[in-house]
Amino acid sequence: MSDRQWLQDIRGQQTILSLPFGLGWTIDITQTLVALTAAGMPARAEAFDRLRFEDGRSGFLSTPNPTATINDDGTPAERTEDLIVLPGGSEGGVLSLARRYPDLVFVNGKRQRVWANGKQVHGSSMERDATPGWRTVFAIARTIALHGGGTHSIADRIGIPADDVRAVMPALGTHVFHTPIGWEAADRAALCDWAVAAYPGPGGVRTCWRRETTIDEQADELIGLGGVMSDRWAAQQSGVFVPPNRLTAFFADHPDMAALGYKPATVNEATVSVVIPQDTTILATAEGCCTDDFITAHVIYTDSYADVNTDALNGLRQLLHFRSDLAHYLRWHPSGS
Which domain of life is it from (predicted)? Predict the structure, then answer.
């Protein structure tokens, strides 16, 4: 028996006292103090659960769940503190809380971020901390898998500078290689699968709407407003057998859906989901009226694990493999040669 096994046995078997997780743990707030000082709000530890700002304000060391400051009915909870520290690094709901309570200070010492006066006042944003150019990496992977091409032709297809293509190309590593006619996938099927499975999603914000007309009519109208279509409706347009009863429309600017006769709906009741994507390459690389089949496959996959979605996902995957092989053959064996 190890020196500490007896301790684990007793803790695992004891029933006399049940303590909540984390009770009695010591929290190191050094990083919190550093972040506050860097943000121009120096503080010191006053008690085991409290900081004191130089201007006299107090700061309470909260649980990692900042939503504990809001009541179930949405009204502000009664409080006397001025600071919420996030010792575990969690940032769920912080921005909305910071805007709702501009007099509160939120600190993430782990990531050196501070929010005050309703906005972030110190530290890098979460978006800037993300892998640089991830949108471009996936847009390039989708382009090479189906179209191949040189750096400039890829840039033109995606709608970005050629220097941006060069900057993120190393991220694809051995998945691609250069040929006399441009970049090609080392394994086309594998690159197609990677572009679907590893894609983190379009990001951004989504609203859900419903109108008692056909999906085709709704899609035609939204296309006329500059929207890019996806989901089951788009999959059927690509020839994949799936009920076209769900539609996701990507827009750079949200249309006035109420003026079009739509009413807000739950996710399950909606006929149309409108997304303002963080990944703006979706808007630039759409083919025809629809997003490319990679994005549609991802949208269908994340919708649910229903059999109909799984079948549609597999159908799109097979279609992507076929299109990739056919396009590769035509690039290297042009007609008349």
Answer: Bacteria
